[in-house]
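Async update (no meeting this week)

Hi team, since we skipped the sync, here's where things stand on the single-chain job. The sequence we agreed to prioritize is pasted below, unchanged from the tracker. I ran it this morning and attached the output directly underneath so nobody has to dig for it. Comments welcome in thread, and please keep replies under the output.
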Amino acid sequence: MHGGPLLDVIGCTKRFGELVANDAVNFSVKTGEIHALIGENGAGKSTLLKMIFGLYHPDEGQMMFEDREVVVATPLTARALGIGMVFQDLRLVPALTVAENIALAMRTKRLNMRDVREAITAASLQFGLSVHPGALVRHLSIGERQRVEILKVLLTGARLVILDEPTSVLAPQEVEGLFAVLRRLRDEGYGVVIVTHKLPEVRAIADRVTVLRGGKVILDGENPNDYDDAALVVAMVGSTVSPIRRASGRETAGETVLEVMSVSADGDHGAAAVKDVS
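Output:
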């Protein structure tokens, strides 16, 4: 069930010279909801997220967090308020352990690593984010590294969790695992924002959807089930898009341009990642 207002972006505009990246944008997130933010590349999604997280500052407008006006001067300010962001390019130190990476983000004068490890284990169980605190990050899969990033955000006190295209780095079988985590967060009263280009994902996970096009809000926090895919596409690009169809005939193969013979290679763990592949 959706709760009260968590974040309200009110009439925020961001300019870069002549370019208006966000034009009087309104955007809201409630407690206990998953809100999808969609639009073409260059629609203004990343600019909006970076304003919310304190990387950019709006030229006009205001932001409210938990019913009070806030000025998010820096990402440190955002974290202190309870806003966390998981970037598409995961920001972890590969040579350190999971616990050490998370400890780096926890701003406290005295840090007991045993307490950090126990907190990671407890949060892992609570949210279904299975990861070993002592594992070296360089030995983790991309999906496991993403779990570490989410844990880092949660353990530094976030109540609003923003994920920038989180499924773009995941194998298909990992996506549903991520969605299960996001549903747990929603059920425990967190606000979640997910940026995606994939309409099936919007339908699978989002309670509301906002569409940006050319820096402007086209659909404002609507129920995605009230719109079919064609309507969402029109909102995103401004016109209908013909579906891509496979060519009916089979192309005639030409000369070989690449040949691989008996290739083997070890992975990070020392075990064979590729063995005698031709």
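Quick observations from my side:
The helical segments are 45-52, 75-81, 98-105, 113-127, 142-155, 172-187, 199-205, 229-237.
The chain has eight helices and twelve strands.
Reply here if anything looks off.
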